[in-house]
Design goal:
heterodimer, A: Rossmann fold, 15% strand, globular, B: alpha/beta, Pyruvate-ferredoxin Oxidoreductase, domain 3, 4 domains, seven-stranded mixed β-sheet, binds thiamine diphosphate, binds iron/sulfur cluster
């Protein structure tokens, strides 16, 4: 694991769920590498928030993108070089709020990316404001009397958007989370893992999750069953909620081409221009 | 007709009359005769109804503008008669659809274009064919030649089009036959719309991927490239928003694809955060901004130069950016290629600023036969282990590497150290700000060795203009035989101040399509030149060269 970590100082709060995500991800990389994944074919992209710091901590190539926009950046990278395996780390404020359109559309077009959502129900980096998944009544500096909005269920949103791989994980179940990351990266097409990430400072959910998280042993077969699993509230199911295969976006658009690598020579360009316009 | 053989044809009617198609066909007809052509479509943001017209001005010598005063107008509806009857040349003819118009002006020629069409399917759409037949009759084409021409140009439902066309021919021939003689010329055969030239130029400059969300008047770049994506090998993507567009393009460029984006004001405003990201992460992206009159949604299908300040100040924070605006469709081709090269040489975003008047007008161009000279981006050649994405070099330009690679390649939106890891250290922040701005120095050095300003004529009376307005001004100067030197800055940021040194202290006339006279303000701010007169127009219409010549004459006489 050490050789996957940079010299950047880690500034997460002790006890933060992000540590489990980092550990599970590095374990997943080791397993994927043992399975043949070459590190130079891997790229990471991150949004802006506490979650995004993982970009600095990981000794991996990629792009530390804008708040909410990392999925767009990642899709540009994927389309330019489909040979890359791309993992995108996003926050719940970042991707369920600011950039939700990109998430919905990445799922809709089955973009071949793995999205890991550090879902902590709070804006960590900007001192604990309400996010789209914060419970009703959540108190933060922008909702001092408690939020008046119901949260939405990100898994059902992802299912409705057409995501072909949807999972939920919990960092306390470290090896389970590692499994989910491995499967998500191996999945060809859009995969999203919503990670229930306790934020010890602004939204400490350890006790809540420890009491309500239950492993889902079998992936539901039908869309309706996946939806039902996503929506359960008596227990919070962790595991793979949907896993189906469909042609990924880049292959439909490009076939086998890799635009950044198969660049056309200047002379071929002139010939094509001449062919079109004398 | 003018004594030098210039001929202007206008076809006018409702959207749904086939006016724009007829405009293209008329332009191709004139182009096919070896004449130089300028075509301007005036259309509204709607699909049916309203008023549309297409102006085709052609001549045996180069023409740089449409003319409002026409030699032959075909008015397909009542509104068109009212709008164009007072814009005829001395021997001009107004032909109107007598089924739609009862009170035509004296001397106008009425033809029952709708009743002749009524027996065919979609009779309204055929009115455009009639306008072309009128043009063919009036310029002396025989019945057979006319039938042939229609057959070639209107291939859909061709037999009905030919039959209808010949019925119009027979109705018109007695009155109009050979009224105008169009001299043949030896102009190049290629006609391009501005947006086509921009797309091809970017392609010649290395474009691999084009990202855009439709917004007139930039959309036809996307349509043009999408239609030819296989021939050209350019990938086109129309995602969910301009925000996605810009961030995708940045991502694509970061792994080595030459990417471009295009929009008009509103969409470009949405790309602004991503533009700044390109500045910080040092990502080269070619950005095309085609203006309509603003602010906000503004007037989608008309022209303006109100976004100059917006382009120059694009993006928050301080970083070098390149802004340039082509003064003709031919120049748009070369400039798009050049800007793509500069963006990559300096790893910073570049804006090709243009307007509806250039984007969507078509004109005769001679594309250069050779590939433009495009500098190769600086690539890293050392060992992978030593690679740092943001190496602090003397020029400020850090060598590039793309994945897959054993090097650690980190691009970022945060302020960062040389390896691309976030920093808040005072000395590194200052160092990186300076590194990025050093690239502007190199850029200026480079621009000093390039042609950044066009000059036409050598008079002491100087008119400064830019963008598509340069075409209007040059045409006005030519037809008005004005004693004027036209100075057109192509590059606007970095502004080529050095090119204005010899004009320092003198008073110039500035012509632009901006209400606030933004170019005049820029000149005052950036050069020692004083502005003695500012001629502006901001009603969405491009200048008419005859009117502009008169305004310039007045200003020169009072100078
Ligand atoms: C466009 C934009 N708006 C606002 C911000 C400020 N900002 C940075 S992080 C953040 C919220 C982070 O919350 P979340 O995405 O949930 O991530 P977390 O910190 O909880 O991991 C905000 C609002 C920004 N960087 N960019
Ligand atoms: S504020 Fe919350 S999310 Fe951020 S590091 Fe601390 S515990 Fe983790």
């Amino acid at each position: 694991m050490d050789e996957l970590i940079t010299y950047a100082e880690n500034t997460w709060c002790p006890g933060c769920g992000n540590f489990g995500i980092l550990t599970a991800f590095t374990q997943a990389i080791e397993r994927l590498e043992a399975d043949g994944l070459a590190r130079k074919d891997l790229a990471i992209v991150a949004g802006i928030g506490q979650h995004g710091k993982i970009f600095d901590y990981l000794k991996l190539n990629g792009f530390y993108a804008l708040h909410g926009r990392s999925l767009a950046t990642a899709q540009g990278m994927k389309l330019a070089n489909p040979g890359l395996k791309i993992v995108v780390f996003v926050g719940d404020g970042d991707s369920y709020g600011e950039g939700v359109a990109h998430l919905v559309f990445a799922a809709k077009r089955n973009a071949d990316l793995t999205v890991i959502v550090h879902n902590n129900g709070a804006y960590g980096l900007t001192t604990g404001q309400v996010t789209p998944t914060s419970r009703k009544g959540f108190r933060g500096p922008s909702t001092p009397r408690g939020s008046i909005e119901e949260p939405f269920n990100p898994l059902s949103l992802m299912l409705a958007s057409g995501a072909t791989f949807v999972a939920r994980g919990y960092p306390v179940k470290l090896n389970h989370l590692t499994d989910l990351f491995v499967w998500a990266v191996q999945h060809e097409g859009f995969s999203v893992v919503d990670v229930l990430q306790p934020c010890v400072t602004f939204n400490n959910t350890y006790e809540l999750y420890n009491n309500s998280v239950t492993e889902l042993k079998v992936t539901p077969e039908t869309f309706e069953d996946s939806m039902a699993a996503a929506r359960r509230t008596d227990r919070l199911l962790i595991g793979v909620i949907r896993d189906v295969s469909a042609e990924p976006h880049h292959r439909q658009l490009l076939g086998d081409r890799r635009p950044a690598e198969d660049r056309r020579a200047g002379s071929d360009r002139m010939a094509a221009i001449r062919k079109t316009f004398g | 007709m003018s004594t030098d053989g210039r001929f202007t044809f206008i076809v006018a009617g409702e959207a749904g009359h086939g006016v724009r198609r007829a405009g293209n066909v008329a332009a191709d007809l004139c182009s096919g005769m070896g004449r130089y052509v300028f075509q301007m479509d005036d259309y509204q943001s709607l699909i049916r109804g309203g008023h549309n017209f297409s102006v085709i001005t052609s001549a045996p010598q180069p023409v740089l503008s449409q003319f409002l005063r026409a030699d032959l107008v075909v008015a397909l509806d009542k509104r068109s008669v009212g709008l164009h009857r007072d814009h005829l040349s001395t021997d001009g003819t107004l032909v109107y659809n007598s089924d739609a118009v009862s009170d035509a002006p004296e001397g106008a020629v009425g033809l029952p274009l709708s009743s002749l069409a009524k027996d065919y399917p979609r009779p309204d759409l055929r009115l455009g064919v009639a306008s072309i037949v009128v043009l063919l009759v009036a310029t002396g084409f025989s019945r057979d030649e006319a039938a042939d021409f229609i057959r070639r140009q209107y291939a859909r439902d061709v037999e009905n089009n030919v039959k209808y066309g010949l019925s119009v021919y027979d109705a018109a021939v007695q009155i109009l036959q050979g009224r105008y003689h169009l001299a043949r010329g030896d102009a190049p055969a290629t006609m391009l719309a501005g947006n086509e030239a921009i797309a091809l130029g970017a392609y010649a400059g290395g474009l691999d991927m084009y990202f855009a969300y439709p917004m007139t008047p930039s959309s036809s770049i996307l349509h043009f490239l999408a239609a030819r994506s296989e021939d050209l090998g350019v990938v086109t993507v129309h995602p969910e928003s301009e925000v996605a567009v810009m961030n995708m393009a940045v991502g694509a460029a970061s792994v080595g694809a030459r990417a471009a984006v295009g929009s008009s004001g509103g969409g470009f405003a949405l790309m602004e955060e991503g533009f700044s990201l390109a500045g910080m992460s040092e990502t080269p992206v070619l950005c095309i901004l085609s203006s309509r009159p603003g602010p906000s949604t503004g007037v989608p299908t008309y022209t303006a130069q109100g976004d100059l300040g917006f382009a120059l100040n694009q993006g928050h924070g301080e970083f070098p950016r390149i802004v340039a605006s082509p003064g003709s469709i031919g120049e748009a081709y070369e400039l798009a290629a050049e800007l793509m090269g500069l963006a990559w040489a300096f790893q910073t975003p570049a804006i090709l600023l243009t307007e509806k008047h250039l984007s969507e007008s078509r004109m005769t161009v001679q594309l250069p036969s050779d590939l433009p000279e495009i500098p190769e981006p600086l690539m890293h050649e050392g060992s992978a282990a030593e690679y740092r994405r943001y190496e602090n070099t003397e020029s400020g330009v850090s060598p590039l590497r793309f994945p897959p690679s054993d090097a650690l390649i980190k691009w970022t939106s945060y302020e960062h150290d040389e390896s691309g890891i976030t920093t808040e250290a005072a000395d590194i922040i200052a160092m990186m700000q300076e590194k990025r701005l050093r690239k502007r120095k190199g850029l200026i050095e480079k621009l000093r060795r390039m042609r950044t300003v066009n000059r036409y004529g050598s008079s002491r009376n100087v008119v400064v203009t830019y963008g598509s307005t340069a075409m209007s001004v040059r045409e006005a100067v030519a037809i008005g035989k004005l004693d004027v030197q036209v100075v057109q800055p192509v590059y606007l940021e970095p502004f080529p101040e050095w090119e204005f040194e010899q004009l320092s202290g003198s008073g110039v006339i500035v012509v632009e399509q901006s209400c606030e006279a933004q170019l005049a303000a820029l000149l005052k701010h950036r050069t020692g030149v004083s502005v003695r007169n500012s001629i502006t127009q901001y009603d969405g219409r491009p200048f008419d060269p005859e009117e502009l010549a008169a305004r310039l004459k007045e200003v020169l006489a009072n100078g």
